[in-house]
Amino acid sequence: MNGQDEREPMDEREAMDEFEQSLQRALQRVDAPETLAKSVAAAVEAEEELRRGGSGWFRPSRGGLVYVLRKPRRWAVGALAAALLLGTLGVREWRLRQERVALADEQFTAAVRVTDHALQQTREQLRQAGVNLGQ
């Protein structure tokens, strides 16, 4: 056997050892921050306050200030969805109307230009024919 064949298994073992060490570091237990317990306790108290019918600001026993919202009723969620849909459709209709108005304005401006040009040509032809319109 040559020296290269012997070295390859060592490289694989070293790579495996590095991988295992990396995996151990990644899976190492980490203590939760101290604020987590306070946050969970405040959330539990807020849920209890909500069950008692409270709504609005309240102060948990561990301090701080928490705003508690009631869960929305299903009809309220449906009404909100309907309002958003109607608003979206209304905005779309308004944009279409604005586009039609802009197009009509462009068409009117073009018609005025064509008419003005035609009148100018007619005046010129009349002037050349010797007709004075009194301008």
Could you name the key traits of this structure?
single chain; mainly alpha; 2 strands; two-stranded antiparallel ribbon; elongated; 135 residues
Question: Describe it for me?
Answer:
The chain has 135 residues and is mainly alpha-helical. Among the domains are: 1-30; 32-71, no CATH class. Helix content is 73%, strand content 4%. It has helices at residues 3-26, 34-51, 74-129, and strands spanning 56-58, 66-68. It has a two-stranded antiparallel sheet with strand order 1-2. It is elongated, with a radius of gyration of 40 Å.
Short description:
This protein is mainly alpha-helical.
Summarize the helices and strands and which ones pair or pack:
Layout: H1 3-26, H2 34-51, E1 56-58, E2 66-68, H3 74-129
Antiparallel strand pairs: 1-2
Biggest sheet, strands in spatial order?
1-2
Q: Please trace the helix and strand order, writing H or E for each element.
A: HHEEH
Output mean pLDDT: 83
Individual helix count: 3
